[in-house]
Design goal:
119 residues, mainly alpha, 3-stranded antiparallel beta sheet, 5 helices, 8% strand, elongated
Length: 119
């Protein structure tokens, strides 16, 4: 089975980490080696696909701030106030948090692996 470009890039980063960890600390310098390892870990994290659970963690909801009249709501993530009329919007206009199941699906669709990355 052949690897995708994404899988090959992740493997390359993992190989680089193993190499950096295997050489004596003085070979690259302790601080420089540590920074290089951290950089490879950041690359791996960026290359891994985003899960539904990760998107759900940033999901917000509209909170009614005026219990008597129900004319204002606010974002549970950033506190942005919005008219109750506009609270049906799928994303917070201030922080971009997805507010509905459909918005979560839209985020996941945008983050799918590009078609040319399948080879």
């Amino acid at each position: 089975m052949s690897m995708t470009r994404r899988e090959a890039a992740i493997k390359s980063c993992e190989d680089r980490i193993r190499h950096l960890e295997s050489v004596p600390p003085h070979y690259y310098g302790k601080r420089q080696r540590g920074r290089a390892i951290e950089l490879e870990k950041v690359k791996i994290k960026a290359l891994r696909p985003v899960s539904r659970e990760q998107v759900e963690r940033v999901r917000g909801e509209w909170i009614n701030t005026n219990k008597e009249v129900e004319q204002m709501c606010k974002c549970s993530k950033c506190g942005y106030p919005i008219s109750y009329f506009w609270s049906r919007t799928p994303f917070c206009p201030n922080c971009g948090a997805p507010m509905t199941d459909e918005a979560v699906d839209m985020v996941l669709k945008r983050l799918e692996v590009p078609k040319d990355d399948q080879t």
